[in-house]
Design a protein that fits this description.
With 449 residues, this protein is an alpha/beta fold. 42% of the residues lie in helices and 13% in strands. Helix 2 (20-34) runs antiparallel to helix 3 and helix 9 packs antiparallel against helix 13.
Length: 449
């Protein structure tokens, strides 16, 4: 398959020059031809083909469930899908009892006729920004040359499935960057929602305070329609974007430090394109970011504290030996946390979220999604210290948005000299998801021109 948007596929289905059965069959043929068995943990070929035939019958009868009835989707294996195990990409849950009921977002998609292709691989328990997995293998970044590159994580399989054009859409989750980082590394569009934007019932948690649902696609228009479906709304033709261009704010501290040369160059090119397209760009300090990092240095992070608490029984059991030892060791550092640390993080979070809303208003923050491009998988596998340092750097820019409740969209911004993709992140204040998506649709058009 070649990179085709879900919107374009839906148009072909409506016109009758493509059937859902043919589309679904093409997805599975592409998956088999691609040959990377680490992308998917579970494939649902028979049920998907049966659902496609039902979709075609509805169209023939003139009663499709939605304009996207028959469109394929891949799901990160944290999301409950009926009769399919939710493994969280862990050997501990490899033989988990399949749920009888799907997650709310899955059921909303099913009601609109979208078809599950399978469940994708991830960093165990969604606990890494690089996408490595010792249990189910590491999906290889489709933009790798002779050296296999990391896909980014934790939503590694979902990002690779879209980037390799195996599916037009995929679901991920994002606790510190797990949608935006792999979107940047793999050169596709990734949307991280505000934490309360979607119903997360039926989704395996990592950090209940920071977890958010996200999606991958080839364009923002697809993300907008997908967003409506995930929220249980009837998808409508994508509305015209706001005519008034928002002010773009480029922070001058923290997120702009230590950039790879190619990342810095591509970012400047994006700013020039947007300036030429009529966007006002302001460079200024954004001290809240530094304040957040100071809080993390003093009190630790909510992710570690909540992940360790959620998995405390596992960590205390013999089954902990089955875990990815890097994941286990990171969770075990939560023993250094105090109740006061946790409360301070939550109190300050509420204050800083409000501060961002007041300071940023309707402006959009713009900075590189990740300060580096995708590193080599072999180097990360071989060196624990390098893995830890690279993981922290990969998540540095994105984790700020999770703590501050900010929705974000990573858009492709070209490639480094070695062919590795680069992304640019656009973020707005808490709960500005729909405004951000509309603005990013127009921003994307400016970057294509």
């Amino acid at each position: 398959m070649t990179a085709v948007s879900a919107t374009a596929l839906a148009t072909r289905l409506a016109a009758g020059d493509l059937t859902s059965e043919a589309l679904i069959a093409a997805c599975f043929a592409a998956i088999k031809a691609h040959g990377d068995d680490a992308i998917f943990i579970t494939l649902t070929e028979q049920s998907a083909l049966a659902a496609a035939r039902e979709s075609d019958a509805r169209r023939t009868a003139g009663c499709p469930l939605s304009a996207w009835d028959g469109i394929p989707v891949a799901w990160k294996d944290l999301v409950d899908i009926p009769y399919t195990p939710t493994t969280a990409a862990s050997a501990v849950y490899a033989n988990a009892t399949p749920p009888a009921k799907g997650a709310v977002i899955y059921e909303n998609c099913t009601k609109a006729g979208l078809i599950c292709i399978g469940k994708t691989n991830l960093s165990e328990f969604a606990y890494s920004g690089l996408g490595l997995n010792p249990h189910f293998g590491t999906p290889v970044n489709p933009h790798s040359g002779d050296t296999p590159l990391a896909p980014g994580g934790s939503s590694a399989g979902s990002a690779v499935a879209v980037a390799a054009s195996l599916v037009p859409l995929a679901i991920g989750t994002d606790t510190a960057g797990s949608v935006r980082v792999p979107a940047s590394f793999c050169g596709i569009t990734g949307f991280k929602s505000s934490q309360s934007h979607y119903d997360k019932t039926g989704i395996f948690p990592l950090s209940t305070s920071l977890d958010s649902v996200g999606s991958f696609a080839h364009c923002v228009e697809d993300i907008i329609t997908f967003d409506e479906i995930l929220r249980g709304e009837t998808p409508l033709p994508v509305a015209a974007s706001p005519t008034e261009k928002p002010n773009l704010v480029v922070p001058t501290d923290l997120v702009m430090s230590g950039l790879d040369k190619d990342v810095a160059a591509r970012f400047e090119r994006v700013l020039n394109q947007l300036s030429c397209a009529g966007y006002s760009i302001t460079h200024r300090s954004f001290p809240v970011f530094t304040e957040v990092m100071d809080l993390f240095a003093k009190h630790g992070t909510l992710t570690v504290a909540e992940a360790a608490t959620l998995h405390q029984d596992l960590l205390a059991s013999d089954a902990a030996e089955k875990m990815d030892q890097r994941v286990r060791e990171r969770m075990q550092t939560a023993g250094q946390f105090s109740a006061q640390d946790y409360i301070q993080l939550q109190w300050n979070r509420a204050r800083l979220e409000q501060g961002v809303t007041e300071t940023l208003g309707r402006d959009i923050l713009v900075f590189p999604t990740v300060p580096i491009t995708a590193p080599a998988i072999a180097d990360l596998d071989a060196d624990d210290s390098l893995f830890t340092q690279t993981n922290l750097l990969a998540l540095r820019n994105t984790m700020l948005g999770n703590y501050l409740g900010m929705p974000g969209v990573s858009l492709p911004a070209g490639q480094a000299q070695n062919g590795a993709p680069i992304g640019v992140l656009f973020s707005m204040a808490h709960s500005s998801d729909l405004k951000l998506l509309q603005h990013c649709r127009e921003i994307e058009r400016s970057l294509i021109c």
